[in-house]
Design brief:
mainly alpha, elongated
Length: 87
C-alpha cells in the first residue's frame, strides 16, 4: 500500500475520517429512506403542531387556511409520475 503523506499515523487518521464520513452518509441515506416510506417526518410535524397550537380544533383551523392547503400533498403513492396529454 502506498505511503501517501509520509507519516503512517496521518495515513490511518485520514483513512478513519474517510471511513466514518462514508458510514455517516450511508446511515443518513437509510434513515431518510425509512422516513420517506413510513412518512415519519410528516407525523412528527403534525404532532408538534398539535402541541404548539393547543389541540385539534386549532390544528384543523390551521390546516383549513388556503395558504397551508396549497402546501399539502394528497395522500397516495410514494412516487407519482406525471403524464402529459399528447395531441
Amino acid at each position: 500500500m502506498p505511503n501517501i503523506s509520509g507519516n503512517a499515523a496521518l495515513d490511518v487518521l485520514i483513512g478513519l475520517f474517510f471511513l466514518y464520513f462514508l458510514l455517516s452518509i450511508v446511515c443518513s441515506s437509510i434513515n431518510e429512506g425509512i422516513s420517506a416510506v413510513f412518512r415519519l417526518r410528516s407525523q412528527y410535524l403534525e404532532e408538534g403542531l398539535r402541541r404548539l397550537l393547543d389541540g385539534q380544533a386549532n390544528l384543523d383551523a390551521f390546516f383549513d387556511n388556503p395558504r397551508v392547503q396549497a402546501l399539502v400533498k394528497p395522500p397516495g403513492r410514494l412516487f407519482r409520475w406525471k403524464r402529459t396529454a399528447r395531441t
